[in-house]
Amino acid sequence: MRNLYRLGAVFVLPLLLCNAALHAHAQDSAAPMEKKEQESLYSTIRSFVGRWWNGSELFPDPCGSTPVQGVLCDVFDGLWYVTALSVGPVMENSLDCARDSHFPLQLFELGHLRSLSVFSCFSDPARHPVAIPSKGWEKLSGSLESLEARSNRGLTGEVPAAIGALNKLQSLVLEENKLSGELPHELGELSKLRRLVLSGNQFSGSVPASLGSAMSELLILDLSRNALKGLLPPAAGGLRSLEKLDLSSNLLGGVIPAALGELRSLTLLDLRNNNFSGGGAAGSFGFLRGMAALQELLLSNNPLGGEIGSFPWASLENLSAVGLSNTFLGGEIPAAIAGLKGLRFLALDNNRLRGGVPPELESLPAVGALYLSRNNLSGRLQFSSEFYRRMGTRFAAWGNPNLCYAGGGGDDAPIGVQQCRGEQGLATDGDLGGGTSGLRASAAVLSASSSFAGGGGGGAPWAASPAIFLAALLL
């Protein structure tokens, strides 16, 4: 699903550019283009698509009667200037990149450029690696608002500190490339930034402490699927406007800072597949109490420890997805979770939970997946046959030797859970729901739960929006 979002963003931009260009052309068709601007545009495009591209012959009036796909212009003081440039194989007539494409210096002569997008352009990291230019960005400091580079396997090297000079930048997306090195602290100087996405690269080092209160307008911070390590700086709590925080699939560790509780607008907190700990300390999950807007809480595959009852469930009434698989949580499942009426996904498998399973969980009106496998749960499951039939393999409670279910067997029986003694058709302690077929089904359930929890450290395509994944589950 994450990939669908990326493709949607890639395809929508050229459509908007095309429509806007047509509208502008109708209004200012008679406006000329500044000669130096035109030459800089032609040279820039040739650097991306190849020297064969002869703009002066193919597109003699690139902002007027012969528009270029992926180029958007606007009129300033009676002259056309380029305001947006999109290169890469997006549409049939898109500017397709050559194998030896590169970032040209002439790009920085487009002084009115507001948006630059490079999609799947640099593809050969071994034979032709391309780096982001380390100089020249200051020439675009008064205009550039969006800088995006997606799915460029040949885009290598570090993010240059000079990008911090882009004081009008609102969106910085460098996703699914081969960028590496440490993140420059100058990123914290981008005070107008609303979206910072650096996922799917090879960044190392720590999360910069400069990502804090100076970035008061930041809404999305996604550093997932890298090799970042160390502690999460408390300064992150200064990102007061933040709505989505995704640091999943890194090497981050230590205690989750209490300062995150200041992120009162947060709807997604995704810290899966890291090494966060400290859940056993008093009040360690108290920071969640201030996150009343939170909808997706994904902490799976971290050695958190502590008790599940210490989560402030009553303060998290807007939750729709909870992923706490493999977090070393203990204690009894609190009935308060049943008060989360919008909850659609709950994964508590592979923990140290004990005691019974609250029957109130069946009353959750929207629940589409409930994973409780491999714990120390005991007693009788008191869910109805209709619940088991509706949930199918999306309910899993196997791997709890002292847990049993009440009712008949057959298709309505929960996979891998023994029938309680004294019930009609009593199962033996060794019967895990139909012999080898039951074991195969249990393995399938484990695979499904682990994938959603983000097992394996590789990240999952739905991670940015588990609500969409859940909608698919309910179809």
From TrEMBL:
Gene3D superfamilies: Ribonuclease Inhibitor (3.80.10.10)
Key words, A-Z: Cell membrane, Leucine-rich repeat, Membrane, Repeat, Signal
Main location: membrane
Record-linked InterPro entries: Leu-rich_rpt, Leu-rich_rpt_typical-subtyp, LRR-RLK, LRR_dom_sf
GO cellular component terms, semicolon-separated: plasma membrane
Location of this chain's protein in the cell: Cell membrane
UniProt keyword Protein transport, yes or no: no
Signal peptide residues on this chain, from the entry's feature table: 1-26
GO biological process: response to other organism
Alphabetical list of PANTHER family matching this protein: OS05G0530701 PROTEIN, RECEPTOR KINASE-LIKE PROTEIN XA21
Protein name stated in the entry: Uncharacterized protein
Source organism (scientific name): Spirodela intermedia
